[in-house]
Design goal:
Elements (H helix, E strand, L loop, with lengths): L14 H15 L7 E2 L2 H8 L3 H13 L3 E3 L5 E3 L2 H23 L3 H17 L2
Antiparallel strand pairs: 1-3, 2-3
């Protein structure tokens, strides 16, 4: 297993988005397993012929999406996607519960609002 990223300077997508999308795709497919250590921002930027800020922007987006995690001086690694997604969903649900409680909605109304929103997203309404 090896990280393979190719940046096409002629592509419509920005270079950072190409880097982000390719790493995310490889993580999702299992080509990059959980715990795989990514190159440093500077090293990877040099390897790809990009500015360090470009790679840093891609890494920040991947971290926000829960695809990678930075462990301080130890480096940046492919994260356990399910765990990160579940943590983020739990945090969002908690924030929602706090907000609807402050708004004075009862449990049934809060559930109905959440279900309507989920249905709209999942069913494309």
């Amino acid at each position: 297993m090896r990280l393979k990223v190719v940046v096409d300077s002629e592509a419509a997508e920005a270079p950072y988005e190409q880097v982000r999308a390719q790493i995310a795709g490889q993580a999702r497919s299992g080509a990059l397993p959980v715990g795989y250590k990514l190159p440093t921002v500077r090293g990877f930027a040099e390897q790809l012929g990009l500015a360090a800020n470009t790679v840093a922007k891609a890494y920040r987006a991947l971290e926000t999406d829960g695809v990678i995690e930075t462990r301080g001086r130890n480096g940046t690694f492919i994260a356990a996607a399910g765990e990160a997604a579940e943590r983020e969903a739990a945090a969002a649900a908690s924030a929602y519960a706090e907000r609807v409680h402050r708004l004075g909605l009862d449990l049934a109304a809060a559930r109905a609002a959440a279900e309507d929103a989920l249905r709209a997203v999942y069913e494309g309404s």
